[in-house]
């Protein structure tokens, strides 16, 4: 357990803001773009830092836009305050990785859905103690699936509050081990 | 006795006590008191910052602040649920809070007269809370420890946002800079008091340490906080209001001036600037909401009855 | 585009002002779950308002961003409907306002997902999911309060009676919106009225509440004419931003 | 003169802020006679505040007039005591605040009639007559409420208990006021405390009310530190003036 | 019959009927209704302007506005006393107002969204009120006539202040000018409606004229107001929102466009923008003040008893 989680990112944010103005943009190679995609994908979600924005599916695209790196993200919901922090982190990390000109574009459509969350992301969430969103069956009938307790695995859980500390999570409790836990809601 | 032994063994082995495990009554009570106080602090702590939601100076800051205060309510919910695993219920705990029989962190008895206070709370108060809480992620009681893992992560995000608010103000207009400095001047000392009285005056600490509810002494945590805050204040371009503050190369720590514990005890006794205001506000919301909770109960009862019939 | 700007301001101001009202309720809700829920709804609405206002400012081309539009416009330039600015008298009032508004906003946003304006379509697409929840939240509470205790039923009915005159304005059609509808940008709000009537009537019936019979029709918001409580809301919202001309935050 | 400016602001802000609170009560009084009475008191206080602020601006020499000081100062620059900014919870609260303040203001102004500052002496001379009426009004109502019904007595006692912690600040002395007192400009507020104690005690005794036992002492106003309600008062008061920089009215 | 004759003679001789004189019941009732309505208008009329007391943009304007609203309360007191000379009491009349069974001037059911509305009310609404009320200074009922002399003087002062507010705005910044024009656009037509329905649709007028309670017809007074307002609008540099408005040299009057009486009747029926708001506000103040009035009564009773004992 890291006991110094405090402001781990601040220094780099400041560095990015102080980055000198740019000379003319050189074109980007496919290798550059690949690297940029990896670096961008590793930016953690500020509130659930075990997940990266790639895990979440918030990172939509990284492309060359007239010699600038353009990163497209889709917020999980309209008012999500993490967007600003993600934007700052993208700029600072990409800048550190040698991409001084980064434009972060926020797009609302198509709207983000939990379907975009990777398997890896689901696994990490459960390990972290948050029940991952349910997979909808591809069929037409939407089954009422049970949310399993991330602590003991029991299916005997119930919702305490439709919202937890953040909009994307609800608060549940397990009737077997009594554990209260967050559930990342299907969206 | 076998149960007691097993409890001691589990704690000693750094393993977790879970809700259905046997535990000594005093352990249970200590935990209930501490988790409840923590939950109360989250919901009372919504007020000083909530004070600025309608007046935040940009839409982006308004959204961030709304989300933060929502987080605090969510943490409160989460912590009350954790306390409930110990066999109390939220309604009881709230009654104790409203009657003044359970405490919340004294820091929330200071007012937020300016927007910069939102930044100072995020940076200093959340910062101190994190230093206090990170060790609890290794607390011997499972549900509390696990709750703290996620809460600490979210609070780190809050602290970062508070720092950003102050950073922006500090490098803004002269009026904004002065606003930031003024807020830090007012919040610095109260933040140091958040770690509780000095070790030699802290009666309950020893047992909590033995039970691995508490991991570090008040003074250790306070020092850790100061060591963290000083360089951050420099990065902000703001001065901490302590002329005695200086780097001590020998110990590798920052030394700081004496804390005015009289003020701390006055606030703790209920005579702080906002004690009455905070509790009244809570009680009013609770009382004005009584008819709503009754309606929800009546509705649930009716529909349970109908479903049963 | 002047028409589109006006239309974006109508939608954006609705969301902004309602978010402002709901945000003020935080720490005042009847239970913690509701503090969370109302904050969440406020956040969703604020999240809708921001790109709408930003887009309006961009199309207007006078250099005003979302904050200039939110904090430096005068009362007579706000184009939100009067419903959203009505004060929170009690929790029943908060819920009644949510019910009337979300039952209107949901079908409107559904129709706007295909708007010719990209930003509008994007906000609508995202908003549909959120507002479906807002409506569900309002419906559940309308049922609980309507079919709860005698007091809750009385309060809920009083809240509906008080707010009902402000509902008609939601569906007001005018040349501006009709011309934009023809171009596929806007949706004529009159077109969502049947759905609203059906939805609201169904909830009221199930909750044992009467559809108010008021004939009074409050109007003016879309022309910038607001009820007297609105000036106070703006004074509170804008004071800090106006106190520091030119500063950023 | 910087000290005199500060002192004038303390007195002027007290009067201005209390006038603002009382002005908000108009149309909300329990009977028409009280609408008239409270408006009248507010008007007197506003009439005191204006020359005091104007004089402060003049001595300061930075070109600020009474309006610049009232409408363009920030919260942390207002030097009124916290008592006058406390909100009007009910009529008992309004009266309790008036009682505590007018029993302080009357002897203070009496002593200030001989101030070396001409404007201050002038305002005090005129104010003494007005405040004598304010005090009489507060005393009469304290008696009626204290010795009226069970409910009125309970409310009046609650109001006194609530506001009592704010009384001590009225009498706070500091270097600034002591140095000005030596020069004959100011009056050390500590000097009027015995008179205040005697007057208030006598009224409470006659009204059958208990002198609150609260040990809490609220303070900070003279250093610009105010209670959280004050920012909202200022937002309302200043919004229009701040919305039109440079305009006159 | 002798009494009735004497009453008729007095009225015909332009002399005054006094409280102790005999008067026909219908005359008494008409007067009570009219004076009460007038008193109600004063106290409801405090609200639209009172809305700006806390937000007036300069201390001077704040003081003037406070004094004006105080005057209105004073007029209300004065008029209720005049009504009481006819054998009713204020409490009864207030109950009728609160129950919606007595009216007040419909003009106060329009909102005051901007500061310029305070000016427009002073200039147009008080202006129209004066035109309406000056003839009442010659009303056959003495106490009412004498009250109106004083009230009209004070209202002239108010009208002048309203004019000054608008004049200052009109010659101020472009935003201020627009604010003034907007207010005049909104208040002009409602002001014309203050004189009541056209003569051919005004049922009670004839008898009131005969009794010398009313002296001029609605349309006559309206014309008088228009003739007064048009040159004042020119002096203000503001436009009256009536494209048909023009000077008619032949008649020596300004001709104006048709009034939308549908709106008038809607507002009168209680469906104006602020009808509900105004009455609710009044009722709330009255109800919340009930315990105060009871306390005052109880105190008075106790002390009367003690004094008597």
Task: Describe the 3D structure.
The complex is a heteropentamer, with one copy of chain A (187 residues), two copies of chain B (309 residues) and two copies of chain C (249 residues). Chain A contains five helices and seven strands; from the N terminus they run H-H-H-E-E-H-E-H-E-E-E-E. Chain A is an alpha/beta fold and 187 residues long. Among the domains of chain A are: 77 residues, GMP Synthetase, Chain A, domain 3, CATH 3.30.300.130; 48 residues, no CATH class. The N and C termini of chain B lie far apart (48 Å). Chain B has a two-stranded antiparallel ribbon. In chain B, helix 2 packs antiparallel against helix 4 and helix 6 runs antiparallel to helix 7. Chain B has 309 residues and is an all-alpha fold. In chain C, helix 2 runs antiparallel to helix 6. The longest helix of chain C has 29 residues. Chain C is globular, with a radius of gyration of 18 Å. The chains are: A alpha/beta (187), B mainly alpha (309), C mainly alpha (249). Chains C and D meet through helix 10 of C and helix 10 of D. Chain A: It comes from Kineococcus xinjiangensis. Chain A: InterPro entries: Fe-S_Maturation_MIP18 (IPR052339), FSCA_dom_sf (IPR034904), MIP18-like (IPR002744), PaaD-like (IPR011883), Zn_ribbon_PaaD (IPR056572). Chain A: Pfam families: FeS_assembly_P, Zn_ribbon_PaaD. Chain A: This is Ring-1,2-phenylacetyl-CoA epoxidase subunit PaaD.
**CATH homologous superfamily name of the domain at 30-106 in chain A?**
Fe-S cluster assembly (FSCA)
Largest beta sheet of chain A, briefly?
A: 4 strands, mixed
Going by helix content, strand content and strand pairing, the class of chain A is alpha/beta
- CATH class categorisation of the domain at 30-106 in chain A: Alpha Beta
Helix/strand order of chain A, N-terminal first: HHHEEHEHEEEE
Low-pLDDT segments of chain C: none
For the record, the CATH architecture of the domain at 30-106 in chain A stands as 2-Layer Sandwich
Classify the secondary structure makeup of chain C into a structural class.
Answer: mainly alpha
Write down the overall geometry of chain C.
globular
Instruction: Give the distance, in angstroms, between the N- and C-terminal Cα atoms of chain A.
Output: 31 Å
Content of β-strand of chain C: under 5%
- Based on CA atoms alone, the radius of gyration of chain A comes out at 19 Å
CATH fold-level topology of the domain at 30-106 in chain A: GMP Synthetase, Chain A, domain 3
With strands numbered from the N-terminus, the spatial order across the biggest sheet of chain A is: 4-7-6-5
How many H/I helices of chain A? 5
Secondary structure tally: strands of chain A: 7
Order of helices and strands of chain C: HHHHHHHHHH
Fraction of residues in helix of chain A: 25-40%
Distance between the termini of chain C: 30 Å
Outline type of chain A: elongated
Protein name (chain A): Ring-1,2-phenylacetyl-CoA epoxidase subunit PaaD
Biased composition (Pro residues) (chain A): 20-29
Domain MIP18 family-like (chain A): 42-96
Domain PaaD zinc beta ribbon (chain A): 145-185
């Amino acid at each position: 357990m890291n006991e110094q989680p405090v402001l781990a990112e601040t220094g780099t944010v400041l560095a990015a803001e102080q980055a000198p103005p740019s000379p003319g943009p050189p074109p980007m190679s496919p290798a550059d773009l690949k690297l940029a995609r990896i670096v961008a994908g590793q930016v953690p979600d500020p509130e659930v830092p075990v997940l990266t924005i790639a895990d979440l599916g918030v990172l939509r695209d990284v492309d060359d836009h007239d010699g600038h790196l353009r990163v497209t993200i889709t917020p999980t919901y309209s008012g999500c305050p993490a967007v600003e922090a993600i934007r700052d982190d993208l700029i600072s990390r990409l800048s550190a990785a040698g991409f001084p000109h980064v434009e972060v574009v926020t797009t609302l459509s198509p709207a983000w859905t939990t379907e975009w969350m990777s398997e890896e992301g689901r696994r990490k969430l459960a390990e972290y103690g948050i029940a991952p969103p349910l997979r909808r069956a591809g069929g037409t009938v939407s089954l009422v699936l049970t949310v399993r307790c991330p602590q003991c695995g029991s299916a005997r859980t119930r919702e305490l509050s439709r919202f937890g500390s953040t909009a994307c999570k609800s608060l549940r409790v397990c009737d077997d081990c009594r554990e209260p836990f967050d559930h990342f809601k299907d969206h | 006795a076998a149960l007691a032994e097993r409890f001691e063994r589990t704690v000693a082995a750094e393993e977790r006590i879970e809700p259905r495990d046997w535990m000594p009554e005093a352990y249970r009570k200590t935990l209930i008191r501490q988790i409840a106080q923590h939950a109360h602090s989250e919901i009372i702590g919504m007020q000083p910052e909530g004070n600025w939601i309608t007046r935040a100076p940009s839409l982006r800051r308004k959204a961030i602040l709304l989300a933060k205060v929502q987080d605090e309510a969510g943490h409160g919910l989460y912590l009350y649920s954790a306390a409930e695993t110990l066999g109390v219920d939220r309604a009881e705990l709230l009654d104790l809070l409203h009657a003044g029989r359970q405490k919340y962190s004294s820091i929330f008895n200071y007012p937020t007269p300016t927007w910069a206070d939102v930044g100072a709370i995020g940076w200093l108060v959340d910062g101190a809370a994190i230093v206090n809480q990170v060790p609890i992620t290794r607390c011997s009681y499972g549900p509390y420890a696990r709750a703290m893992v996620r809460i600490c992560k979210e609070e780190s995000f809050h602290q970062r946002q508070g720092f950003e608010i102050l950073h922006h103000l500090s490098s803004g207009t002269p009026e904004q800079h002065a606003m930031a400095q003024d807020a830090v001047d007012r919040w610095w000392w109260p933040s140091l008091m958040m770690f509780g009285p000095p070790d030699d005056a802290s009666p309950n600490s020893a047992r909590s340490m033995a039970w691995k509810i508490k991991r570090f002494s008040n003074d250790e945590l306070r020092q850790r906080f100061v060591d963290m805050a000083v360089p951050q204040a420099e990065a902000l371009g703001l001065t901490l209001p302590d002329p005695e503050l200086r780097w001590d190369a020998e110990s590798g720590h920052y030394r700081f001036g004496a804390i005015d514990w009289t003020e701390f005890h006055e606030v703790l006794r209920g005579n702080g600037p906002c004690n009455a205001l905070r509790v009244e506000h809570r009680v009013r919301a609770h009382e004005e909401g009584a008819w709503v909770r009754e309606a929800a109960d009546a509705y649930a009862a009716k529909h349970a009855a109908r479903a049963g019939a | 585009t002047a028409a589109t700007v006006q239309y974006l301001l109508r939608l954006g101001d609705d969301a902004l002002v309602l978010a402002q009202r709901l945000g003020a309720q935080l720490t005042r809700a009847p239970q913690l779950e509701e503090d969370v829920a109302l904050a969440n709804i406020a956040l969703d609405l604020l999240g809708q308002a921001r790109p709408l206002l930003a887009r309006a400012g961009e199309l207007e081309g006078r250099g005003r961003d979302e904050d200039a539009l939110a904090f430096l416009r005068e009362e007579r330039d706000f184009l939100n409907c009067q419903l959203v600015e009505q004060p929170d008298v009690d929790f029943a009032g908060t819920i009644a306002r949510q019910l009337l508004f979300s039952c209107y906003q949901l079908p409107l946003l559904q129709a706007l997902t295909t708007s010719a304006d990209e930003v509008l379509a994007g906000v609508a697409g995202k908003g549909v999911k959120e507002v479906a929840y807002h409506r569900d939240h309002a419906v559940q509470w309308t049922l609980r309060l309507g079919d709860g205790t005698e007091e809750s039923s009385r309060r809920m009915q009083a809240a509906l009676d008080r707010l009902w005159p402000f509902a008609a304005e939601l569906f007001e059609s005018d040349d501006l919106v009709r011309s934009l509808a023809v171009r596929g940008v806007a949706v004529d709000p009159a077109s969502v009225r049947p759905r609203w009537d059906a939805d609201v009537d169904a909830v009221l019936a199930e909750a044992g509440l009467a559809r108010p019979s008021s004939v009074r029709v409050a109007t003016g918001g879309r022309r910038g004419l607001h009820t007297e409580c609105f000036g106070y809301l703006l004074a509170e919202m804008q004071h800090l931003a106006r106190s520091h001309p030119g500063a950023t935050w």
